[in-house]
Design a protein that fits this description.
Blueprint lengths: L2 H10 L3 H9 L1 H4 L8 H14 L14 H11 L3 H4 L1
Length: 84
């Protein structure tokens, strides 16, 4: 086994939708080096996932329970409408 074989096995095991979201999230994760805290970066990531969800979910939630709802969307990986 080589590192390349391990990488191929890792990548090929993901559904395409999950792998695509992972790669697209790098632009958000790059903010960790800026002046934002880890919490701010994570909340930005959650909002980004909500706003780029297919099909659209409308405006990102606010107030009590907003973070929980956005986390559910991320964890559902495509079946979000059923949870909301």
């Amino acid at each position: 086994p080589t590192p390349l074989n391990g990488s191929e096995k890792f990548v090929l095991g993901f559904p395409l939708k999950v792998l695509t979201s992972f790669i697209l999230s790098f632009s958000i994760i790059a903010d960790l080096g800026n002046a934002q805290s880890e919490t701010q970066v994570y909340e930005n990531y959650l909002r980004w996932r909500w706003e780029t969800h297919k099909p659209p979910l409308g405006n990102a939630p606010r107030g009590v329970g907003a973070i929980a709802r956005m986390r559910l969307v991320v964890m559902a990986q495509g079946n979000s409408k059923l949870l909301l």
